[in-house]
Prior knowledge:
globular; single chain; 6 helices; mainly alpha
Amino acid sequence: MDRFYDRVLADPLLAPVFLDVARVKLAEHLPRIKAYWCKMLLGDDSYRRHMMAKHRAIDARRPFSTEHYARWLLLFEQSLAAHYHGPGTERAKTLARRIAGNMRRNLEVTRPKN
């Protein structure tokens, strides 16, 4: 996650969303996101937050675009490929694709219509 977020925060498309809109503080965010992925990949139950509410609030300020999801997935998969291999890596990629797709669908449905 550390390497992935290094990429995200250096990315010209994603960095403004994370830094300017969400105002992510890595010291707080990284332990939460690591706990989330431990839950998703390993079944650890220490993550008890509702991530959609947070993302819905960010999307309300600046809607996520198709490009945001695609770039997030690209950087996630590149980070995995650079440092990990094997079945766990493939599972993480599959989960990331599902998460991005579910988030996109859920946010688009709940977005106010103009």
